[in-house]
Amino acid sequence: MSEKSTSNSLDLVVTAVATQLMAVNAATSVNVARKVLADLVAHFDVDASFLRHNDHNIRATKLVADWPLRPNVPDPDPLAVVYFDEADPVFALAEHLKEPAVFRPEPATEDYQRRIQENRHIPPTSMACVPLLSGDVTTGVLGFVKWGDRDWRAEELNALKAIASLFAQLQARVEAEDQLRYLAEHDDLTGLHNRRALLAHLDERLAPGMPGPVSALFFDLDRLKAINDYLGHTAGDWFIRVLAERLREGTDGRSLIARLGGDEFVVVPAAPMESDTAEALAYRLQSILRERVAIDGEMLTRTVSIGVALGFPGRDTTSDLLRRADQAVLTAKSSGGNKIAVFSDEMSLDIEFRNDIELHLQSVIENGALLLHYLPEVDMRTGEILAAEALVRWQHPTRGLLSPDAFIGVAESINLAGELGRWVMRSACAEFARWRAQGVGHDAVLRINVSPVQLVTDGFVESVADIIEEFGLDGGSVCLEITESVVVQDIETTRITLAGLRNVGVRVAIDDFGTGYSVLSHLKSLPVDTLKIDKSFVRELGFNAGDLAIVRAVIALAEAFDLQLVAEGVETETAALTLLRHGCHRAQGFLLSRPVPGGEMAALLAQGRIPLHFSATPHV
């Protein structure tokens, strides 16, 4: 063959390789590479060919494709990964090879010849080895092997260099695809799978015919915000990474672990698992995660709440399973945290109820389904009505009259709490003003609960002032109640807001006082008028010495700061008499009166008193 025709033939080979590699992606790269190697083996009249990629992180060369396929490949394959530190001179040369190299049967290549002979069972060979280059980095090698000896011409090696360049471009493209796929499926902080990968995995696991049940463990760290606030977000991120690594170490390596963002993780065990086994795994992982973490010289730990749920392939969807696991972890957290909860039928009913509430709550304010009831506050010495606390109710279309506990939490979760609170305040002030216009309630105080959302909303104080002015009320006749936990969430914002309310003239009460949120240290600096003893300390008064000790301390505190004191949840005569005996005479509770509609409240205010069904004279 003439030199010109040989050159044309090699050009056609290079063009053919370029055409085959052009449309290759990560999924098809190995099969197409193997086909190209087969074509090149035939064209160059050699006996075998291989494509290897270098992994410079571990200093090794990895087999990507070879031709022809080797029969009876041992496991593990000694040619699959060859570490450069352990390699013979020929393999070692591939780490930084920059120009084609030709090896022929000679003493210098004895180690390489022996390795090939042992694993391919062939006689001594000759080989052309061409580097894959990315700039100055050798990313792999393309090799062609001939049993016996072969002389490689310069134009053939140039053609192989062009082909190696095409393979290097393919390698870079596949690695970029792999990196994009990795980033799309993994969390960048921890390297765990992300929500997208979790959903895809569960879709596959829950497909009809797959083994089940499939368990999901939903992890939610308790109060990670404290670490971020105290040590900064860098420390918080480090804490998250440590816990992610502990989850990896605590599972079997085949389980999928995903971070959903923030401090939420999901573990999906690889094997089908019943609830008892999944719960046991949850307890083991919870114990591992509770171990202390060293950060900036601090030994920190955080408890974790875990929700466990099962899904059955062909019956349940991914959203079904994750919704159950989420509901279970919410149950664990609402029980005080550091708990494990397994999804149950009762939780399922709760979800159904919550979804129903959320569906109808969106329009409840506009359609007039909300109404107010009032809980009288009574002087237990005389029965005189001192105040009325406005309590919102919802006339649900199918579930009847609902108390706030049934829907306030949902309102907060869908950002309706502020709007709902404004409705309550405006409606209560309007009704209170009507009572006064009718000549009743002039000596009583209207108490209105304020949500955390309202308290931190810009313009809240101005809104209160406008409503009071609109209905012609004096500020001293209105008392806004905020829970003790809300006060300390953001003490500076609370202090500013309460000072503004004081300027407007309205009174302020701390509700649920004594529940352990440490407002005591701030009490003397807050413009507060009233403390309301939480009903959990009142319910068993007369029987529980611990509750009595707390109530007596709160009574002394109110006296020291010259604050009004109201006991909530008075349901027994014993509790009422115990309170009176220790100097607390203002109270609310079912013993005195249940919440009543507005018309009944107006009638009670007209009477001025509620009949007492117990002796108000304290026993000595």
TrEMBL record:
GGDEF domain: residues covered: 212-345
Listed Pfam families: EAL, GAF_2, GGDEF
PROSITE patterns: EAL, GGDEF
EAL domain sequence ranges: 354-609
SUPFAM superfamilies in alphabetical order: EAL domain-like, GAF domain-like, Nucleotide cyclase
Protein name per the record: EAL domain-containing protein
Organism: Mycobacterium deserti
Lineage: Bacteria, Bacillati, Actinomycetota, Actinomycetes, Mycobacteriales
